[in-house]
Design brief:
By secondary structure, this protein is of the alpha/beta class. It is built from eight helices and twelve strands. It has two domains: about 70 residues, no CATH class; about 220 residues, Oxidized Rhodanese, domain 1 (3-Layer(aba) Sandwich), CATH 3.40.250. β9 and β10 form a beta hairpin. This is Rhodanese-like domain-containing protein.
Amino acid sequence: MRSYSNPKAAKYIITSLLFTTSITATSLTLAQDGEPDGNRYYLERFYQQDISAAKAYLGMLGKLKEQRDEEDSEKENEDEKITIIDVRDATEYRMGHPKKAIHMPYPRIYRECVDNLRTEDGACASSTVYQVRQDPESLFLQIEEKIEDKQTPIATLCRTGFRSVLVANIISKPTTICDLKGYTDSEYDDCVATYQDRGYANVSNIWQGFVGQPMAGIISSSGSRYVVGDDQTLTDLTLADGSMAKGFVAYDLDLNNDGIISSDDKDGWRYHQSLPYTTKMKRKLINAEADAMGYYDLP
């Protein structure tokens, strides 16, 4: 059994390869619209694809074309710069974000932490006192006002890759707003008619997120890949779509070899990937709603 100086860092449940038949089948073919195949949380996917933080960074700078043969015309849309939408809350954004990232917080705008204790990236260090939630329809309308061209390459970013999937789905298929708001009957039909065909066509999710998670050890054996477990006792898990899987506490890797599992071992933009970020709050990038309500100024 491996010991950790920070036990909380070890408590990430990683699903094994023992998925149900329905999940295994989807991995053998291209994922269909809405299938949970691609993001790290097995959430349904209506957006185009999942990409790395490194690719998002190069796209933000407009340098993706330099990374491939100029004769390759099949990916012409990658010549355009990627617009990064950071969906973390006001404090998280204030304490560090990609230089050109537009702030569109969802599903929360702000949260107060117990004793105002936060990690260096702005997350609550222990628990939450209260949260200010964002309405999905308001989110979409704000993004639509900010980014008029529906062909704009967009990459959504959150802390670990969960909230960013939610936003990527909303802006790719805005009729999901009707379900999220709980509309029924004629109200639902009117909502669908309002948002049908208003989605963005070129949306990616940044898989690792800004902070990320510890990397799990993986071993290949007899043509199969297995997650190495710190506790080899398998536990029944329910995935986001209701499918069943098996999982155990993962054996997290000490990437920087300093003897502890810490933020520096997490796979996201800020830490292991060491991509540039800033704490400057530019007027054209911050969220007008969060700013008007003073959430950037709260502890």
